[in-house]
Amino acid sequence: MEGPSLIIATEEFAPFLGRKVSCVYGSANLPSLKGLTLESVSSWGKHFLLGFTGLTLRVHFLLSGSYRINQRRENREPKLELKIGKDRIYFYSCSIRILEKPEVYDWSVDVMSSSWDPKKALKAISLDRDEMVADLLMSQKIFAGIGNIIKNEVLYNLRIHPETRIRDLGAKEKIALVKEAHDYSWQFLEWKKKGELKRNLKIFRRRQCQRCLAPIVREVTGRLKRVSWYCELCQQPVQTIDSNFLIEHFLKPKARSKKLRKKSLRPQQGDKVKP
DNA sequence: TATAATGTTTGAAC
DNA sequence: AGTTCAAACATTAT
Fold first, then answer.
1. How far is the CA of A148 from the C1' of B7 (A)?
2. What is the structure's pLDDT at A88?
3. Helices then strands, each counted (H, E), chain A
4. CB proximity A72–strand C (7 Å threshold)
5. Residue A255 CA to chain centroid, in angstroms?
6. What element of type H or E holds A4?
7. pLDDT surpassing 50 at residue A272
8. Nucleotide nearest to A63 (CA to C1')
């Protein structure tokens, strides 16, 4: 589950704010939650955070985790089940932790946060010049919330080969990379909410490039050894990307970006989880 | 039907 | 001692 999906989760959990957990079940074995009131719901990158008095429940959905509200999956044992009034919340195959001390999160690196700081990201991406751009986009310290789908779509849109080293990116490309990492994540959220995400993926698990009809390559890349999908024709390993293309498509303000920038769906966050 | 994978942590190996 | 690496995890989609 990537960052935008967690934004949807925070919205779906909003009705439970201010309500008390009456029962707790599951293999996570967290009886300490019983009787506590849900005080905040937020996310940082791919961390889903439920704030209670004195502690925070941190859920990470990893590759195949999920949650359900009032719809228990058949033949599946939830890792954690919370009863709140008549409602039941189920968490499946996820990593769950109780944070007893307030964890310090830097929201300025979260692409889905209203505190997202593109200038900070721009500085950070140049630190390791040997890093491949595919690995860079997956760095949760720089682009918290970005996962493998967003990585591949961003690189396709920018026509950058996933194995390009940071040293080989020009200044305009770096700016476009930071901007598109943010803007595409919000586009992902919009499509996901409308149930149109899959149909709008251009490169991830596709076979043929929509732009040039060339075959799409699927290859394990970089230090992280994650799969990259790219067009072998329009994302060349060594090429100077037409700077007019970048300016036209990614560096001019767009209606889409403007609209999304105007109003963040998330509440303002400080830099730490409230205990 | 078998395999891959919206991801991270862990602990062994180096 | 610090870094690197593969395994483990769980379950859906292809």
1. 9
2. 95
3. 8, 10
4. no
5. 22
6. helix A3-13
7. no
8. B7
